[in-house]
Design goal:
- The radius of gyration is 22 Å and the shape is globular.
- Mean pLDDT is 90; it is low at 353-357 and 380-393.
- It has two domains: 20-246 and 358-391, no CATH class; 248-356 and 396-504, Orthogonal Bundle (Serum Albumin, Chain A, Domain 1).
- It starts with 12 loop residues before the first strand and ends with a strand.
- It has helices at residues 25-36, 41-55, 93-98, 120-131, 138-151, 157-165, 167-171, 197-209, 212-215, 217-229, 236-240, 269-278, 283-286, 291-311, 322-325, 328-335, 395-402, 408-413, 438-446; strands spanning 13-15, 19-22, 65-72, 77-83, 153-154, 193-194, 245-247, 250-254, 257-261, 359-365, 371-377, 417-422, 427-433, 451-455, 467-471, 490-494, 501-504.
- By secondary structure, the chain is of the alpha+beta class.
- It contains 19 helices and 17 strands.
- A hairpin with a 2-residue loop joins strand 8 and strand 9 (257-261).
């Protein structure tokens, strides 16, 4: 497959009535159709989630988890749904030890024990039930995705690449039904039409019977058969007892803007911790993507990841000191650990209280001003890759807008970095995207960052694929001549690292 080139430019999408931004054109259009037919942001988000499951199964799906932030325009309140599933009740530490797994011999990443109860289906239903317009049924919301799966769709370029990259999981001998996501045993090519009638049938069950259509009956039985045949211990009771959790979102205020995330066990607290640390530096004066600027961002993220790795857990099992972690006093102390001239190999978690890669993101704003921010994840591409029979926004982006005055599309286009911690080596690896200058890359190496530059082509997927919709161009410096009518204009951008787009009306 040819190297992926980045040579085009896009203007931000601007509109006034409603907007959808996702990683796939067909999914984006489906969301927009739901808005035009009377649905609101929550209805459209679920329709987009289902459509992305059809068009991009290597990144997302009903077999994974979801997280939802919903802004209700009438009350100006932000609501949260945690649609992540729990581990099977029978999967105990004692069982893992009996099977030979421990702190030194870790569970293989694609073992069936790593499969948690899929929370996405219930999350979709609950998002519509709690926040939807009540004008559309679940069947109407899922119908476009059902039609897409039955009639087929042409596979997009970047999706085709990642589908092929993960095809070995579907082709494995133990994966009896992996061929349901292949064509003649191979991943579909760019432009090849792919149909998924089995997924369409799963959506029909969800539309007809609600959550019971997924967590009980034939779909649930197929999930359990596949998991248990591959050595897992999940059972029907694990599925039947699953519930979505309504949560109170957490936030921090950075330069006058409230940034919201789902609380732990969600990982969004990492971004909030980093922003609080960055509040102690004049990063604007450093200049965009300079070595000084990137060094401080990298070190702030190392600190926040260190805290997240240690403190972020299931709050039903372990007390998570979220309030203390998000205090400005705590962030000030953490910021003082950053050496402006030298990278740290490892940061320890902070002294607080004694305590016990693939995802899609998309966003929708409707004509009433409601907004839905949605994550739907398999975790690691196809997840474990196991297919039940017949069932077929990052920190740097915000800083680009808030600190350097970029519009949504410019903010997404800008070159990024990615951090990866190697437990085997006990150190951080820094990956720098093509677009960051060679001089900056060399300066960061001189500060003892273990870095790789430039990351190009399809490997840019390491840096994520964001979507942005904002109301008003608040990142600009407004003057007395600015038109107040412009404050209601929606501005949107879609990540060039994906196949998608933003569309509005």
């Amino acid at each position: 497959m040819s190297e992926l080139k980045f040579c085009s430019r896009r203007s931000p999408v601007i509109c006034t009535s409603g907007c959808v931004a996702s990683n796939q054109l067909l999914a984006t259009n489906i969301g927009l159709d739901i808005l035009k037919s009377g649905g609101n942001a929550a209805d459209a988000a679920v329709a987009v989630a289902a459509a992305l499951n059809v068009t991009e199964p290597c990144s997302t799906g009903i077999g994974g988890d979801c997280f939802c932030l919903y802004y209700e325009a009438n009350t100006k309140q932000v609501h949260g749904l945690n649609g992540s599933g729990r581990s099977p009740g029978a999967l105990t530490i004692e069982l893992l030890k009996v099977q030979g797994f421990n702190e030194t011999k870790l569970l293989p990443p694609f073992h069936a024990h790593n499969i948690t109860v899929p929370g996405a289906a219930a999350g979709w239903c609950d998002a519509v039930s709690l926040y939807g317009s009540k004008k559309l049924s679940m069947g109407q919301i899922l119908q476009p995705a059902i039609q897409l799966a039955e009639k087929g769709f042409p596979v997009s370029e970047i999706t085709a690449y990642h589908w092929k990259r993960g095809a070995h999981l579907l082709q494995a001998p133990e994966n009896k039904h992996g061929n349901e996501l292949l064509i003649h045993g191979e991943a579909p090519h760019h432009g090849e039409v792919f149909c998924n009638p089995f997924l369409a049938n799963t959506f029909k069950e969800l539309a007809k019977s609600g959550k019971k259509g997924f967590y009980e009956g034939c779909v649930a039985e197929a999930i359990i058969e596949t998991v248990q045949r591959n050595g897992g211990v999940m059972d029907l009771e694990d599925l039947k007892s699953h519930v979505t959790e309504e949560v109170k979102p957490i936030f921090t205020n950075y330069k006058g803007v409230n940034v919201w995330e789902i609380p732990p066990n969600g990982q969004g607290i990492t971004a909030l911790l980093a922003l609080n640390i960055l509040d102690n530096f004049n990063i604007k004066a450093m200049g965009h993507n300079t070595a000084d600027y990137l060094h401080v961002l990298i070190e702030a993220l190392k600190l926040s990841f260190s805290d997240t790795f240690w403190f972020c857990a299931d709050p039903d099992k372990v007390p998570v000191p979220t309030k203390e972690l998000l205090s400005k006093t705590y962030a000030k102390g953490r910021s003082e650990l950053i050496n402006l001239q030298r990278a740290s190999d490892k940061y320890n978690y902070g002294n607080l209280l004694p305590v016990g890669s693939d995802t899609v993101y998309f966003t929708v704003v409707d004509t009433q001003g409601n907004a839905c921010s949605f994550i739907n994840s398999n975790y690691m591409g196809f997840g474990t890759g196991l297919v039940p029979e017949g069932c077929g926004f990052t920190l740097q982006v915000l800083l680009n807008m808030l600190t350097f005055g970029m519009n949504p599309q410019q903010a997404l286009d800008a070159a990024r970095f990615c951090l990866d911690y190697s437990t085997e080596e006990g150190k951080w690896h820094l990956l720098l995207e093509d677009g960051i200058s060679q001089a900056v890359a060399e300066d960061l190496r001189a500060r003892h960052h273990c870095s790789q530059w430039p990351i190009t082509g399809h490997n840019r997927s390491l840096f994520g694929r964001g979507q942005i919709i904002t109301k008003g161009d608040w990142w600009k410096s407004w003057d007395s001549l600015s038109s107040k009518s412009s404050h209601n204009v929606l501005w949107a951008g879609s990540d060039p690292r994906g196949d998608g787009c933003a569309v509005g009306y």
